[in-house]
Design goal:
- This protein has about 775 residues and is α+β, with helices and mostly antiparallel strands.
- It has a domain of about 60 residues.
- About 40% of the residues lie in helices and about 10% in strands.
- It is built from 27 helices and 18 strands.
- It has a five-stranded mixed β-sheet with strand order 2-1-3-13-14, covered by helices on one side. The chain has a five-stranded antiparallel β-sheet with strand order 7-6-18-17-16, sandwiched between helices. The chain has a two-stranded antiparallel ribbon with strand order 4-5.
- Helix 13 packs antiparallel against helix 27 and helix 18 packs across helix 23.
- The longest helix is centred in the first third of the chain and has 39 residues.
- It is elongated and about 140 Å long.
């Protein structure tokens, strides 16, 4: 009986063991089968070898300055610019490994110890996900599956992908891919964007405590947000530093020292409407879209059939120098803030009941406001949404909260309540400005500022806006006369009333231009003195002698594309020209008569560094070296004794409001400078074109409408509105010797046959600052 019972127990135990191993083997087989089916794609799509070889992540196009700085990026949702492993600092890699995957270098994608620990303790003592698994999730299994079964299958797929990634890439490449893929929030996609946005530096410059902040965010960037949850992120950073000490990447003393530091966030959001060179970046956007239309993308299976500047990670190498660009933006803001203050002072409602407009009646003012309302973004959007015109008009008279531009605020904007119609008039009160700076020998554009603030003034006055050129057009007349008639800067003409009769040069009626002050001295003026002081009578005689046709021919060769009538009145600057074309044209004088078309982009590369485009200079011989040098010599007279003489002034400590705005800057330039001021009728436009041997810069200042202008020429001339911006810009440039801006003489051709030394004939330009000889009168 006992034996039978013992035999039965033994039999049951054998069956138990048998079924245990059967179930164990079945479990192993089931697990193997699940992995096998997952790897074959039966449990959901798995990435192909090609996708593993080239994971598809959206990459931002990067705009790179000539001095190697990132000016900005083009992106939609993913502001991602990848960096290589070598560009990651050791402290960042150490923080990552210590915090996220301590045995990273010892496993092949799956951490067995971590997995067993997570199963036994149900994840309460740390997870099992390796860096490689996290990368696989970011790249290929981003959406979290619902339900336990779904999560198990997803985890299996992550394991398989992780193993494949480990076979495909080195440990270093996987770390770089992971850091380049993670979304750190605030459009900080990838470590490079995160480093620039949160700390204002490249990843290679990150300090240990800064790297710890970013690694801490990997747990959950929405939760560990350093802008919104500073204390939480600080504690998380210190946890990361503790992990680094635990795994001997830091000493205890070093850990304690770093944990005692405050979290120094330097937040620099990367926005399309903010940052450096915003106007240039918007121009470049159109340029690249045009390039894409004419340059098809090579066909590659699984990729887009055309380039996309927001997704393909192009690198665009530009001619803009970030240092000069900043100098230009700072100079424009500094002067325009002062000038605008004076404009507001002169255009209060009690001083000008039609402010900001001058010389207009109520009907004309209403016409300007009506046009502005109909061309506004509000009108366009409401119209496209099917809103009736009556409702649209009514919306312009309803008060609403808005943020507007304001010079007096540190952020250059303020919150207020006003009607949209009032906001239109408010923005009409602001004077606008633009400047462009170019290296004449290469055509490389070094700085481009299209306005005051791109966020609030999106019209680019460098290339979109063409305004009357005023006296800045006169050098083209002088160039044609010297070239065609072989005149010299020292030849003289009388300053007396001069008329061109009706019918001559296509003139419909007699044309008798006045000088700015309405007076004529009756004295003989050398061409040099005539140009230096913008004497209209001298210019009128020159265009009569050479004719308008040769002048128009020359300016077309100099890159001016707008319509220019072949009539005498163009001599005083009636044609509309933009800053971009004007700078290119003046560059020809400095470049010994050779026109070089302005260049903004030198090279475009794809994300792998393959060159897609390299520029070829566009040049044209327009003037002889002698004529070009004679023109430069003429325009040196503008800064030596004409309307640009204030560049040589030292300023005054005891400044009136006038002196502060106009002459209060201690310029004191002593180096050779050629230039030309320009002012149009009613002081609507102020220009200054300034040149040194290796840099040509054009500046324009004026209102959006010609009716917005200073009442007097004292403030409204080019020498007051535009010249100070050039001076401040050049002062900053010269302060940085690395820029290499020339202070030398302009190169003189050998065997020069044109006489440029007027001192031999005792015809030197008088050394005085003619504040009002710059204005052109268009009465004709």
């Amino acid at each position: 009986m006992a034996k039978a019972r013992k035999k039965k127990v033994s039999s049951n135990f054998s069956k138990f063991i048998k079924w245990f191993w059967i179930l164990f083997a079945s479990g192993l087989f089931l697990i193997f089968l699940i992995f096998l089916l997952a790897s074959w794609g039966f449990l959901g799509e798995m990435p192909t070898f090609e996708r593993l070889e080239n994971p598809q992540t959206n990459l931002a196009t990067e705009i790179i300055s000539s001095d190697g700085q990132t000016l900005g990026k083009y992106y939609l949702d993913d502001n991602r610019t990848p960096v290589s492993y070598d560009e990651l600092p050791d402290n960042l890699v150490h923080a990552l490994v210590a915090t996220e995957d301590a045995r990273y270098y010892d496993h092949s994608g799956i951490d067995a110890i971590g997995t067993i620990r997570a199963i036994v303790f149900l994840g309460k003592r740390g997870g099992a996900s390796t860096i490689t698994q996290q990368l696989s999730k970011l790249l290929f299994t981003k959406r979290i599956s619902g339900g336990a079964a779904g999560r198990i299958i997803q985890k299996v797929k992550e394991w398989i992908i992780a193993i494949r990634l480990e076979r495909q890439y080195t440990k270093e490449e996987i770390i770089a891919m992971y850091m380049n893929t993670y979304d750190f929030g605030y459009a900080a996609d990838g470590i490079r964007s995160a480093s620039r946005i949160y700390f204002g530096k490249e990843p290679s410059g990150l300090k240990t405590e800064e790297s710890a902040v970013l690694v801490g965010m990997l747990k959950n960037s929405s939760l560990y947000n350093p802008i919104r949850r500073e204390e939480l992120v600080l504690n998380r950073r210190n946890t990361v530093l503790g992990q680094m000490a635990k795994y001997d990447y830091l000493t205890e003393k070093g850990k304690d020292s770093l944990q005692s530091l405050r979290m120094d966030i330097n937040f620099n959001p990367e926005s399309h409407r903010e940052g450096l060179a915003t106007y240039f970046r918007m121009y470049l956007q159109g340029y690249l879209n045009n390039w894409i239309e004419n340059n098809p993308k090579p066909a590659v299976e699984g990729e887009r059939d055309r380039w996309n500047i927001y997704l393909d990670g192009l690198k665009v190498y530009t001619t803009i120098d970030s240092r000069m660009q900043k100098n230009a933006e700072d100079a424009l803001k500094e002067h325009m803030k002062r000038l605008q203050k004076e404009f507001f002072h002169q255009n209060t409602p009690d001083r000008n009941n039609t402010a900001p407009f001058l010389d207009l009646n109520t009907e004309e003012t209403n016409r300007i406001m009506e046009r502005a309302m109909r061309t506004s973004e509000r009108w366009r959007i409401m119209k496209s949404n099917g809103v009736s015109e009556k409702e649209i008009r009514a919306s312009f008279t309803e008060k609403t909260e808005m943020t507007v531009f304001d010079w007096n605020s540190d952020t250059q904007e303020k919150d207020t309540v006003m009607t949209p119609l009032d906001s239109i008039r408010y923005y009409k009160t602001f004077l606008r400005a633009a400047m462009m700076s170019m290296e004449p020998q290469t055509g490389h554009v070094r700085a481009w500022v299209g306005g005051l603030n791109y966020k609030h003034f999106q019209y680019d006055n460098v290339i979109q806006g063409a305004r009357q050129a005023g006296s800045t057009f006169k050098p083209f007349v002088y160039a044609a006369a010297i070239d065609q008639l072989r005149l010299s800067p020292c030849d003289s003409l009388p300053d007396s009333q001069y008329c061109i009769e009706a019918g001559k040069h296509g003139n419909p009626e007699p044309w008798c231009p006045k000088n700015a002050d309405g007076k004529f001295s009756g004295k003989m003026y050398t061409l040099k003195r005539g140009l230096a002081n913008s004497v209209n009578s001298v210019t009128a005689q020159l265009i009569d002698r050479v004719g308008p046709k040769p002048v128009v021919a020359i300016v077309k060769d100099l890159g001016l594309t707008g319509e220019i009538l072949e009539v005498p009145s163009i001599a005083l600057g009636t044609p509309d020209i933009n800053v971009y074309e004007m700078v290119g044209a003046y560059g020809t004088f400095v470049n010994q008569g050779v026109y070089v078309k302005p260049v903004m982009v030198t090279r475009i590369e794809d994300k792998n560094g393959t060159v897609l485009y390299e520029y070829v200079p566009e040049t044209k011989d327009v003037l002889s070296r002698e004529v070009a040098y004679a023109m430069v010599n003429l325009m040196e007279g503008v800064t030596e004794g004409g309307s640009g003489t204030r560049l040589r002034h030292s300023g005054s400590k005891d400044q009136t409001v006038y002196k502060e705005v106009i002459t209060g800057y201690p310029y004191q330039f002593t180096n050779p400078i050629a230039g030309k001021t320009g002012t149009t009728q009613n002081q609507s436009d102020g220009w200054f074109m300034g040149m040194v041997p290796n840099l040509v810069t054009g500046v324009w200042v004026g209102g959006e409408d010609r009716a917005t202008h200073f009442k007097s020429i004292l403030y409204g001339q080019g020498a007051s509105m535009a010249l100070p911006i050039w001076a401040l810009y050049m002062k900053s440039n010269y302060a940085n010797e690395e820029l290499g801006i020339s202070m030398e003489e302009f190169p003189k051709p050998e065997g020069l046959t044109i006489n440029v030394d007027c001192s031999k004939e005792n015809l030197d330009t008088p050394q005085k600052d003619n504040l009002e000889d710059d204005l052109d009168d268009f009465d004709f």
